[in-house]
């Protein structure tokens, strides 16, 4: 049974809990992250802070958000580089002097102002049923459409259409998973929004390629 409330959703037939796989929204409590049910993260090594592992530059004071849909599959080493990682490029140097010269007298508004740089890219949005391969990097402000596949070690700097397969650095569309009429129908079905019992009842249709059965 799929359990969106389980910290570790993968259990082997012998009862062994796979502790390297987590439901992300059960291990992340971050004011600038929104994570849908059943979206999991797999990491080979122990992780103390999952929010910092996947989005190291997203801070509680950051203006931008990281939004991850439902049923997203995130492999080991995937990192989201959000807009708060950016440096000010208007001057002769990009060195962030102010970051290293704060004092006890530095106020909240002054710290918050450090994030207000020109050319901000805004929120990073990952759709539903997206698969991000090992060590992929998603750059600031990118939107990845539903059903897309991101190849291992890709660097994604531009928006990705729904059901596209992208790979490389910079990542480019290698192919579309389905033709456009099929994609339109899948986007209309939006199986990831169904109640869990209906998803489980249609699991074979969802995992297969019979669109008529999925729509039925």
UniProtKB/TrEMBL annotation:
CDD domains reported in the protein's UniProt record: LbH_XAT
Pfam families reported for this sequence: Hexapep (PF00132)
Signal peptide, first to last residue: none
GO molecular function annotations of the record: acyltransferase activity
InterPro entries linked: Hexapep (IPR001451), Hexapep_transf_CS (IPR018357), Trans_hexapeptide_repeat (IPR050179), Trimer_LpxA-like_sf (IPR011004)
PROSITE patterns registered for this protein in UniProt: HEXAPEP_TRANSFERASES (PS00101)
Entry coiled-coil feature ranges: none
Record keywords, A-Z: Acyltransferase, Cell projection, Cilium, Flagellum, Repeat, Transferase
Family the entry assigns: Belongs to the transferase hexapeptide repeat family.
Protein name (database record): Flagellar repeat-containing transferase
Organism: Pseudodesulfovibrio mercurii
